[in-house]
Amino acid sequence: MKKSLSTWILAGLLALASAASLFVGVTDIGIGDLAAGGMQLRIFLLSRIPRLLAILCTGAGMSVAGLIMQQLCMNKFVSPSTGATIQSAQFGILLSLVFIPGVGLWGRVMLAFAAAMLGTWAFVAFIQRIQYKNAALVPLVGIMFGNVLGGITNFIAYQSEVTQQLSSYFVGSFALVIRGNYELVFLAAPLIALAFIYANHFNIVGMGRDFSSNLGVKYGRVLLLGLSVSAAITASVVTVVGQISYIGLIIPNIVAMFRGDRIRGTLCDTALSGALFVLVADMIARTVIRPYELPIELIVGIIGSLLFIGMLFAKLGKPLIRLTRKEGTCHG
How far apart are CA 91 and CA 86, in angstroms? Predict the structure, then answer.
């Protein structure tokens, strides 16, 4: 009952926040204006509702993508932003802008997915070959790998004179989301359902190759499926909204503090919490300097970085202190 209660509470808070967000923006819209029709109704249908749906799919999808990656990599600090998945998707978008400029939105997201998949696989293959790895080393490797990809992407974009076109994919914002150019983020819904179906398999694969083989689970196949789901969600979000970091890193860890580490038990709460987090951050971005709007990446980055630092101290502080004391380099 306690577990289901948290899900119902999150669903209720998300419903209330969703209703409130529909009436937050530069143009004041009231219920009476919707009944009267006119320009306010058109803005409501063409902008406010598509924006809300894009926010919900982005928050839920990126949170679930982070949860899957953390389970498969057996590390709580791995996510699309620390596993080079976002940077790889941006590199794929760059390739579409440079070599196939008229490919269209679907073609662009397919290239982003292919690049995100290759980049994530390269990251996972590399960390599997590291003999000594603690909780902090794995995400640091992913961050360095992502920075290398980001540098290559910026260099090619500068040489090809597509820097301005690519810049919109580096800063996440829902300001330009209107009906007709956001529907790709709906891919997150069936992918989340697929993750729920294979949740137990992801848990088993997270225990290691030998453990999976003993239970009859195809390690490589399930690992490929999980990484494909994370890469597809990331590619669709980056292509439509742009880069939004920390969601897949912070939200699964916060939910795990209360619900444990089993994907099937935490998946629903993770998706709801991610959607709620992004929705609240978006409303803050719309109201802080109204009538102007801040990129949501800025709000999420500030909150997420503070939470990430707190997580590092909480998870790594005590073990590091014990280690230095044992070696005789820490006194007091």
Answer: 9
Parent domain of 30:
2-323
Q: Which residue has the tokens 């003993």?
A: 214
pTM here is 0.86
The verdict on residue 331 lying in a domain is no
First to last CA, the chain: 46
Question: Dihedral, CA atoms, 283, 231, 267, 16, nearest 10 degrees?
Answer: 20
Per-residue pLDDT tens for 226-281? 999 999 999 988 888 888 888 998 999 889 888 877 787 789 999 999 999 999 99
Which phi and psi angles does 216 have, rounded to 5°? Answer: 80, 20
Contact 23, 30 (CB under 8 A): yes
Task: Specify whether the CB–CB gap between 89 and 235 falls below 8 A.
Answer: yes
Is residue 330 assigned to a domain?
no
CATH number at residue 276: 1.10.3470.10
Dist CA 275 CA 260 (whole Å): 20
The total domain count for the chain is 1
Note whether residue 38 is domain-resident. Answer: yes
Identify which of 148, 96, 97 has the alpha carbon closest to the alpha carbon of residue 119.
148
Q: Please, are residues 308 and 139 in contact by the beta-carbon 8 Å criterion?
A: no
Q: Is residue 317 part of a domain?
A: yes
In order of 163, 238, 240, the CA distances from 243 in angstroms are 15, 5, 9
Q: What percent of the chain has pLDDT over 90?
A: 24
